[in-house]
Amino acid sequence: MPQPDKSNAPGVHHYIPIFYTKRWACGHPRMLTRFTRWPSGNFAVDRKAPKGVGWERDGYSFDGFTGDQAAAIELELMKPKDHRASQMLRRLEQRGSSGPWSSEERYDWTWFIVSLLVRGPEDVRSAKANISREWAIPNQRMEARYQDVIREFPGFAAPPSLRDYIASMDENYGYRLGMKIMADMTDHHAISSLIANMHWGVRAVDEGRQLLTSDRPVRLEFPLRSEKSFLTLPIGPRLLFLAAKSLRGLNRLLNSDLRVLVERNNRKVVRQARQFAFAADDSERNWVSKHLAKEPQPGFFDFIRGTGATLGEA
């Protein structure tokens, strides 16, 4: 009896969107190669449909926030923006970064890049834990802000302190707040602005090794505020998106040795993966087995400390 396709089940959330991974799919039926580092340390290789990778069941669910509420984040936040990002990816494939980009178009693509840093299972769990912990034990800054709000609205009947206000809420309020802030992180203004204002380009890989991708596909070198900063994102086995703080930095990437660029990008993207890497075929099996998930990229709350931005910037 055939097994049910769990990746189509209600409550399944794709933290690596299908429109992205399908760029590595080939053959009939169209499938990609998935490399996996299981928690036991074992390494595995299999062929999967794009919809069958990069997903987690009930990824946005937790106590007090389940079912339709959790699904709303995927359906009402992620899915519409993924659709717009897919249109920008198609543009990059067809025309590169040339031609005028409206601020909305640059934002649509930047949102996708930032979302890849925040929507993974580890990031969602980190958001829940971090915000819930802060909410449970408010610091002086949070208390001061609460007092400012009380003064701004003298007619507002509020408990005298933030601790008292928290005590009046149900036990799952902090978790719901954590999920809301996790969703807001994909619109993180400080990081999005830094990336949107970079110089963009696309480098074709016409020959030699193909580009690999992973569950942590964004390569960032140097803090975003640094003049040396640049990031890359594989957008197919033969196309690499580039963004650099300076035009000189972008030109260096566009004109660098292609073999070296692909080697360094594959190494970083595979080593910083949490568990999975993806390719068009299994020709890199031995190489991936040596590098997969050897230096996992930090979760978003840790990553953000290295960008020059802060969670409170807007």
Short description:
Helix content is 45%, strand content 15%. Strand 7 and strand 8 form a beta hairpin.
Give an overview of the whole structure.
Helices cover 45% and strands 15% of the residues. The strands form 3 sheets. Strands 3-2-10-6 form a 4-stranded antiparallel β-sheet, covered by helices on one side. Strands 5-9-8-7 form a 4-stranded antiparallel β-sheet. α2 (67-95) packs across α3 (103-118) and α4 (121-136) packs across α7. The protein is globular, with a radius of gyration of 21 Å. The model is unreliable at 1-7, 62-66 and 306-314 (pLDDT under 50). The protein has 2 domains: 7-123 and 188-306, no CATH class; 124-185, no CATH class. β8 and β9 (239-244) form a beta hairpin. The longest helix has 29 residues, at 67-95. It has 314 residues and is of the alpha+beta class.
